[in-house]
Design brief:
The mean pLDDT is about 95. The chain is about 45% helix and about 10% strand. It is built from five helices and two strands; from the N terminus they run βαααααβ. It is mainly alpha-helical and about 80 residues long. Strands 1-2 form a two-stranded parallel ribbon.
Length: about 80
């Protein structure tokens, strides 16, 4: 299982684990498919902040990430 953190900037997360992109898109965080957006906003936006902005329940995001084979750490 791949360990990720909800506090990691999205740009960093996508660079390290590109397989997370389809999960994010499915959850409504489709900005990760736009290179310009990823290279600007993605530098400080985290999964946690993005979910909050898009009104995605954290429990739903965690369930989707877990189902995709990710282990979410530092989920305080």
């Amino acid at each position: 299982m791949t360990k990720i953190s909800l506090q990691t900037p999205v740009r960093e997360l996508v660079q390290a684990h590109p397989e997370v992109v389809p999960v994010m898109v499915k959850m409504g965080l489709s900005g990760v498919t736009d290179p310009a957006l990823l290279n600007t906003v993605g530098r400080f936006m985290t999964l946690e902040k993005g979910a909050r902005m898009k009104h995605i329940a954290l429990a739903d995001l965690l369930a989707a990430l877990t189902a995709a084979g990710f282990e979410v750490e530092n989920n305080d």
